[in-house]
């Protein structure tokens, strides 16, 4: 059985109890493992699959089912490899160190986010369902990594994404890369990387047609790809030695098991963030069957002035040879290609497969919706043809709009002006609207930057992944910012929308008022009698950048100070008190680190009521300078 390991029943129960985050639509289902082991790893399977075929429903595209584990991601930092996600006790990624879990997997909008901190790098995995170029449907899994260097030094960096591919019942189908059908271990890089690759078992009765898309839109082509058996790639955290003549059968076994490793490498400067993105899902191939079966794939939509590829797959499933075979491309008006429209294929032997491709351009006279036809034939072989439609579309046009908050004050707290309940707030919501006014969809990412008076409410919330935004569609969400102090002023921020190698950015500004400093004394006991001990707390509210304070505490002669304790405002630092003279206490405090005080105690005063009487306790802040704060006390006679 494939990758079977004999686990104890206790382990089985642990995995059975695990949870997962799930994305699902009419075509695909993605499961992201929630751990405790293999957290962040994912699997992909079809739901309805290709609407034109019923035999690809509920089939695996990435091995793993409800508990994904065999596909995993390596993060390389300064030459050392780390496992993205949770630890494992299985073969794939065994003994690799892991980072610190930050959040996820959690569903946010149309995507599942998983975040880990590894050394200085914050790595966010974003899994979503997007459109495949050759089908025009949301039947692709978008796999994206946002990597942010939060340290002070640059780091050499790399990501390896291992995909344990599986096409339903087929685990070793040939990989179609341009005009090549790969059935042995292969390395691809640079100019040999295709726009996309496809995999299927045969043209006569393909069960599942898979496609990995490497280029276009928001995708970032990898620097290199290794295609090999899963075991060779799973046992190595980075690049594994390949045997160019070896097939996709794992060592010691007799069944094929194909896997891909995609590599991105480079350098991350301090404060820099980079995105790495690829697609894997279903592929669109239009098939016509005959003595020579023909399959044709091409993009469903093409941007104005953009070239595209038409790829034809030819397969002879019969035993006899087809002599003098030929292949023709029939293009509509306005479309051109530098390659010959007709190709002589010669002999096509029984069981043989061939691939051909054309790079096609649409001129100014090309109709917005056009169809092309590919025909294959030969001696004593009835021609078969495939017709596909391509639509020429305009580019996307992304714009940004903000609705900044209006901030007021109520009871020494910030409140939203339009909130009838006047609930106190500590973070400011900015409503962001992203709109696509163009004619084609775009994968949109937003990056935020604070300019003055603000910081991000969450330190890792500088990036938002919107996903595919269709023509004339818009998307709204709230981005939260925190003020840098209580002193009020102007908050300014900048948000950039990144799409199709373009950037649209806008600056937003709003004002928030200064919060007045509030000092107060609170008595814990409501009724006091002679010989009671009691506490009085000295509270501070809305103090910016407090580094220390000095207080004079004055009390009546019928009280005796017992002790003075440091307040909650001091987490680390010094605190001292002494009685300067009868009825006067001095408090001196220093904080190791400046901090903003929303509402904390500066000191807790403990007194003994020596006798009955009426008077007041005064706290006079020497630093910060402020008027005296007074609490009136009444001590009643003790009960006889």
Mind sketching the topology for me?
Elements: H1 9-16, E1 20-24, E2 28-33, E3 42-46, E4 60-62, E5 73-77, E6 80-83, E7 100-108, E8 111-118, E9 121-130, E10 140-149, E11 155-163, E12 175-177, E13 180-182, E14 186-189, E15 196-199, E16 210-213, E17 224-229, H2 230-234, E18 258-268, E19 273-282, E20 286-288, E21 292-297, E22 301-303, E23 308-316, E24 322-330, E25 335-337, E26 342-348, E27 353-362, E28 369-378, E29 381-393, E30 398-403, E31 407-410, E32 413-416, E33 428-436, E34 442-452, E35 454-456, E36 463-469, E37 474-483, E38 489-499, E39 502-512, E40 518-523, E41 528-529, E42 533-554, E43 559-566, E44 573-581, E45 584-609, E46 613-623, E47 629-636
Parallel strand pairs: 22-29, 41-47
Antiparallel strand pairs: 1-2, 2-3, 3-4, 5-6, 5-11, 7-8, 8-9, 9-10, 10-19, 11-18, 12-13, 12-15, 14-17, 15-16, 16-19, 17-18, 20-21, 21-23, 23-27, 24-26, 24-28, 25-27, 28-29, 30-33, 31-32, 33-37, 34-36, 34-38, 35-37, 38-39, 40-42, 42-45, 42-46, 43-45, 44-45, 46-47
């Amino acid at each position: 059985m494939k990758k079977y390991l004999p686990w104890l029943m206790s382990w089985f129960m642990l995995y059975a109890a695990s949870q997962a985050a799930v994305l699902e639509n009419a075509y695909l289902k993605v499961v992201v493992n929630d751990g405790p082991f293999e957290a962040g790893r994912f699997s992909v399977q079809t739901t309805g699959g290709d609407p034109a075929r019923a035999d690809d429903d509920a089939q695996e595209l990435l091995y793993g089912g409800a508990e994904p584990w065999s596909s995993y991601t390596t993060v390389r930092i300064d030459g050392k490899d780390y496992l993205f996600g949770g630890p494992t006790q299985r073969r794939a990624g065994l003994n690799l160190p892991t980072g610190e879990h930050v959040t996820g997997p959690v569903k946010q909008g149309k995507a599942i986010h998983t975040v880990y901190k590894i050394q200085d790098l914050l790595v966010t995995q974003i899994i979503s369902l997007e459109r495949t170029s050759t089908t025009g449907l949301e039947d692709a899994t978008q796999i994206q990594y946002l990597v942010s260097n939060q340290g002070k030094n640059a780091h050499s960096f790399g990501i390896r994404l291992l995909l344990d591919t599986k096409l339903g019942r087929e685990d070793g189908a040939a990989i179609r890369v341009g005009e090549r059908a790969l059935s042995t271990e292969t390395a691809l890089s640079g100019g040999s990387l295709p726009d996309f690759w496809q995999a299927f078992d045969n043209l006569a009765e393909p069960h599942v047609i898979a496609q990995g898309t490497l280029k276009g839109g928001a995708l970032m082509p990898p620097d290199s790809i290794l295609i090999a058996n899963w075991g060779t790639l799973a046992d190595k955290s980075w690049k594994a030695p390949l045997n160019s003549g070896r097939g996709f059968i794992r060592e010691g076994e007799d069944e094929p098991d194909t896997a891909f490793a995609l590599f991105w490498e480079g350098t991350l400067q301090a404060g820099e963030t980079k995105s790495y993105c690829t697609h894997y899902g279903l592929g669109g191939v239009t098939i016509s069957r005959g003595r020579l079966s023909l399959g044709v794939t091409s993009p469903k939509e093409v941007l104005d002035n953009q070239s595209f590829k038409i790829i034809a797959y030819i397969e002879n499933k019969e035993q006899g040879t087809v002599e003098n075979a030929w292949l023709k491309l029939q293009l509509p008006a306005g479309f051109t290609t530098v390659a010959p429209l007709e190709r002589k294929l010669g002999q096509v032997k029984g069981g043989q497969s061939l691939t051909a491709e054309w790079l096609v351009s649409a001129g100014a006279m090309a109709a917005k919706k056009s169809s092309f036809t590919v025909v294959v034939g030969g001696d004593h072989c009835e021609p078969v043809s495939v017709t596909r439609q391509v639509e020429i579309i305009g580019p996307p046009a992304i714009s940004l709009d903000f609705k900044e908050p209006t901030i007021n004050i109520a009871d020494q707290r910030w409140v939203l002006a339009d909130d009838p309940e006047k609930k106190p707030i500590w973070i400011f919501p900015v409503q962001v609207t992203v709109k696509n006014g163009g004619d084609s969809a775009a994968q949109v990412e937003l990056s935020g930057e604070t300019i003055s008076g603000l910081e991000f409410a969450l330190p890792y919330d500088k990036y938002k992944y919107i996903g595919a935004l269709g023509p004339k569609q818009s998307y709204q969400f709230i981005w939260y910012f925190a003020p840098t102090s209580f002193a009020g002023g102007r908050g300014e921020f900048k948000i950039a929308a990144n799409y199709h190698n373009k950037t649209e950015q806008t600056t937003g500004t709003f004002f928030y008022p200064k919060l007045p400093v509030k000092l107060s004394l609170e008595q814990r006991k409501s009724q006091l009698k002679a010989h009671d001990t009691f506490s009085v707390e000295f509270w501070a509210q809305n103090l910016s950048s407090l580094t220390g304070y000095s207080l004079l505490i004055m009390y009546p002669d019928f009280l005796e100070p017992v002790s003075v304790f440091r307040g909650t405002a001091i987490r680390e630092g010094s605190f001292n008190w002494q009685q300067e003279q009868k009825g006067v206490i001095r408090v001196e405090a220093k904080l190791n680190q400046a901090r903003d005080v929303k509402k904390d105690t500066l000191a807790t005063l403990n007194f003994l009521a020596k006798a009955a009487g009426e008077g007041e306790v005064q706290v006079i802040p020497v630093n910060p300078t402020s008027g005296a704060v007074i609490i009136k006390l009444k001590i009643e006679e003790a009960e006889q």
